[in-house]
Amino acid sequence: MKNNNAKVAKNLFEELYPICRSITGNGVRDTLQILQEYAPWHVHEFCSGTQVFDWIIPDEWNIKDAYVKNEQGIRVIDFNASNIHVLNYSEPIRGNFSFDKLKDRLYTLPEFPEAIPYRTSYFNRNWGFCLSQNQYDKLNKNEQYEVCIDSTLEPGHLTLADMELKGSEGKRTYIISTYCCHPSLCNDNLSGPILTTLLYQALEKMDLRHNYRFVIAPETIGIITYIHANEEFFRDVDGGFVITTVAGPGEFGAKMSFSHNADVDRVIRLGFGERKMKYNEYSFAPDGSDERQYSSPSFRIPIATITKDKYYEYKEYHTSKDDLDFVSGDALSETLELYISAIEKLEVNNIYRVLEDRCEIQLGKRGLYPTVSGHVKQSANEANESSPKVIGDIIYSNAIDAISWFLFYADGKTDLVTISEKSGVPVIQLHKVAQKMLKENVVALVEDPNG
Ligand code: ZN
């Protein structure tokens, strides 16, 4: 275990995994209550039957037990063994069924015979069971089965939670959103609420300029409900991240916003680039997660997502094999670092203007240039990554490069993210150069025209 975040993530996975979550009900409440021990999540309840834009909040679903028993009274399908055995949102049922009558209500995944598929029926009243193909093959096709789903589906509430960090300037607001409606499934998407909670902890320690609104809600209907309740707020949101599938063993990925080049997209690319990390870039598509709501025509908020084993792309997705063995605290912690790095870049992304823009600034008289010259660009001395050069408090493998690129583009129009894209110098290094140059009275900060 590399660090404390990894350890906390691992413990949270283990604590939250057994809970049977859905789009409503006590599973969501219990999950939020546990996460409240780590961050000040503020819980909100919305009544069943409420119209939210084109949708209606459904009745609340809760479940105590469910099984299919054979003629010997043995549970051949048992909710206690895995809560995804029940078609999520199944209405209550008790009765005896022949195999022929039962079989249309059994869901399997023949191409992955050892896995139980995860299936839901939120908006059509239905009931059923999910089981592995191997389990299905073993069922006696000539027996009578006793079926019980001890659930309730009644008027109640939809539960979600939010919290906020206010920045010192507060001109820009970002949404950080995740969903909590999946039962015992780890990468999709227990990993999302866990990372989002840890991300709050990390940002809380930073001196923030921008505002950040965090949301955990059931996917789709929960976020639609949240946007409906905060419609005016969402008119002023500049961008955001939907946090999903962040702790798998496989490859990193990034799903870009509809704009493909919004600040949230660009800082993600830069974060991977400066770490020289390989990742899969996924173009925007109007599927996936809650970016579908945030980016809908009335709001058009650009939303990007960093993933580690992206939803749809791994075999275990939406099956019982997306379990505690599939994810790890270390993987989640690595993805968390990428999110923090993206947000750090948004935080320092300013525009500067050099005060003397006619020809170069003389760096030497300000102590910003090596006093012995001639070796600039001689890689043996300068651009050796293992011995970073320090000039003032600017540390970079080639500090002169960082200073030169910064001053070249300090034209009052080009922000640090753009300079980083053009130069390859990390945004944070450019920021350190900018701070130094401000102190030396070489540049002025320009009001962000989009701020
Ligand atoms: Zn899912």
Which structural traits does this protein have?
451 residues; Glucose Oxidase, domain 1; Arc Repressor Mutant, subunit A; 3 domains; 8-stranded mixed sheet; 4-stranded antiparallel sheet; 13 helices; 23% strand; elongated
In short:
The protein is built from 13 helices and 21 strands. The protein has 451 residues and is α/β, with parallel strands linked by helices. The longest helix is centred in the C-terminal third of the chain and has 20 residues, at 329-348.
As for the CATH topology of the largest domain, it is Aminopeptidase
Order of strands across the main sheet = 1-10-12-11-13-16-14-15
Largest beta-sheet details: 8 strands, mixed
Mean pLDDT: 94
CATH architectural category of the largest domain: 3-Layer(aba) Sandwich
By DSSP (H or I, 4+ residues per run), the number of helices equals 13
| Separation of the first and last Cα atoms | 40 Å
Low-confidence stretches: 379-387
Described by the principal axes of the CA atoms, the overall outline is elongated
Q: Look at the structure and give the CATH class of the largest domain.
A: Alpha Beta
How would you explain this protein's 3D organization?
- The protein is α/β, with parallel strands linked by helices.
- The protein has three domains: 2-58 and 158-348, Aminopeptidase, CATH 3.40.630; 61-154, Glucose Oxidase, domain 1; 351-445, Arc Repressor Mutant, subunit A (Orthogonal Bundle).
- The chain is 29% helix and 23% strand.
- The protein contains 13 helices and 21 strands.
- It has helices at 4-16, 26-35, 99-102, 133-138, 186-204, 221-229, 231-234, 263-274, 291-294, 329-348, 399-408, 416-423, 427-439; strands at 42-47, 51-52, 55-56, 60-69, 75-78, 93-98, 106-107, 129-130, 144-154, 157-165, 173-179, 211-217, 239-242, 252-255, 280-282, 303-308, 351-354, 389-391, 394-396, 411-415, 443-446.
- It has an eight-stranded mixed beta sheet with strand order 1-10-12-11-13-16-14-15, with helices on both faces.
- Helix 5 (186-204) links the parallel strand 11 and strand 12.
- Helix 1 (4-16) crosses helix 5, helix 1 (4-16) crosses helix 10 (329-348) and helix 11 crosses helix 13.
- The chain is elongated and about 90 Å long.
- The two termini are 40 Å apart.
- The model is unreliable at 379-387 (pLDDT under 50).
- The structure holds zinc ion.
- Zinc ion is lined by residues 182, 188-189, 311, 318.
